[in-house]
Amino acid sequence: MRKSWWKILAVVLLIYTFTAGFLIKVPDIGNLKETIRNLFFHVPMWFGQIILLTTSLVYSILYLRKPDLKQDIYAASFAKTGILMGVLGLLTGAIWATYTWGEPWSNDPKQIGVAIALLIYFAYLVLRNAVPDIDKRAKVSAVYNIFAYFIYLPLIMILPRLVESLHPGGKGVEGNPGLNGADLDPAMRMVFWPAVIGWTLLGTWITTLNIRLYLIRDKNLINAK
Amino acid sequence: MTKTVFALLKKDLLLELRQQHSFYGILLYMASTIFVLKLSINNPEGEIWNGLFWIIQLFVCVNAVAKSFLQESRGRMLYFYSIADAREFIIAKLIYNIILMLVMSLLSLALFFVLLKNPLSNTLRFTGIVCLGGVSLSLVFTLLSAIAARAQQNAALMAILGFPLIIPQLLLLIRLSRSAFGEVFREGALLQLSLLIVGLDIMVVALSIILFPFLWKD
Asked: Could you identify which of A79, B149, B199, B200 might form a hypothetical disulfide with A56, taking C-beta atoms 3.0 to 4.6 angstroms apart as the criterion?
């Protein structure tokens, strides 16, 4: 119970997201209509993705400081769940865009940003598979992970300021990489932030299951050290 | 420090001069690609010309920079390991690749002018942007070439790893080059874009110097 409180919290928050998210009164803005409720499912994916990828980065740095195969497994698992959330975010976004912008893909800077992120992290997985030696794989992929993250992060900060965006809070020089929290309706904010925490915790939960699986699979390798 | 860097740089340059086949190989690769472009699109408009130019730069860079680490045999790396520091080694490689890529970029620009005409309204500015672009591309691909070499893979892996990473710089460069086609920019925007590219370059150099020692140790 002491160890699994956050899993219970994740379930509770997500149940809250799914019930309150569909039941609360939402402001009626232009052509958004009821699709605005997608905010509780689409936007938290991005928060989750960035948080998970940052965690992956931290484990990669830790690995380079003190090589331990466990760190490598952690980094890879967090990156994988980050990819999963990225794909889900892209899909929920594409569905939303079909009904509000008229087409699933409109070269919006944030769409480009996430497409690049997915390419980068798919390349990370390709790199991992390309190296047969375990220690070398861990080291090389850690270096790539760090290099990629620090190039990717400026990109999502720069790109929205460079290209016109259809997303809220993103036009020209004022372009904001995220959405402007102050613009959010108070009632929606009450659901939005719990949703962010809930989805992120769920992502972490999936990751820990993955990590446990890999730790058991590579038990002999880790203990041999 | 500077002495070792200089010696390593000199060795790379001498190798390039003596084994001219690789240099001419890339040159031929570049020339034939641009010739194919000429045959397929005879007189491209400004925007297409710009896009094609940068894509060609990208491919030339992958091919030119790829061999900087892939050409070094295991035994030779071991020898460098005993005489030089990892940081000196990567700095020498970065400088060497910058020089190589600058030459390649300017040559391909000349070829573009000859074969695909010159749609630019400000040729001098575009040449400057091309130099900046050559430096940016070569910097990013140097560390990637080290990663690919470490993974004992060919240039294909380098392209897979590098293409997503180069997009920020490439987008900035393409945006910046539009100014040489007569597009008017907001005041200060040109400087801002150039500074962004330079800033990214500095970050890539710093990351290369920090991260390369980990790839070097075995």
From this structure: A79
Residue B40, judged by CB atoms within 10 A of its CB (0-12, 13-18, 19+), counts as exposed
Q: Chain A interface, mutation test: which of B176, B211, B216, most A Cβ atoms within 10 Å?
A: B211
Q: How far apart are CA B150 and CA B55, in angstroms?
A: 26
| Domains in chain B: boundaries | 2-216
ipTM of this model?
0.84
The helix-helix angle for A134-162 and B123-150 (nearest 10°) equals: 160
d(CA A219, CA B147): 27
- Joined tokens for residue B40: 């397929």
B198 interaction partners in chain A (CB closer than 8 Å) = none
User: Could you tell me if B65 and B142 are in contact, meaning their C-beta atoms sit under 8 angstroms apart?
Assistant: yes
- Residue A179: predicted pLDDT: 54
**A35: containing domain:** 5-223
Q: Which residues contact B36 (CB under 8 A, 6 or more apart)?
A: none
* Distance from the Cα of residue B116 to its chain's centroid: 22
The count of domains in chain A is 1
Burial (CB < 10 A; 0-12, 13-18, 19+), residue B18, is exposed
Residues 6+ apart with CB under 8 A from A178: A46, A169
| Residues A151, B157: C-beta atoms closer than 8 Å | no
Instruction: Specify the amino acid at residue B10.
Output: K
Assess whether pLDDT exceeds 90 at residue A174. Answer: no
Average pLDDT per block of 10 residues along chain B, 218 residues long: 82 81 86 90 84 91 81 76 83 90 92 85 88 92 86 77 87 86 76 87 92 81
Give Cβ neighbours of residue A152 (< 8 Å, ≥ 6 apart). Answer: A116, A117, A120, B165
pLDDT given for residue A161 in this prediction: 65
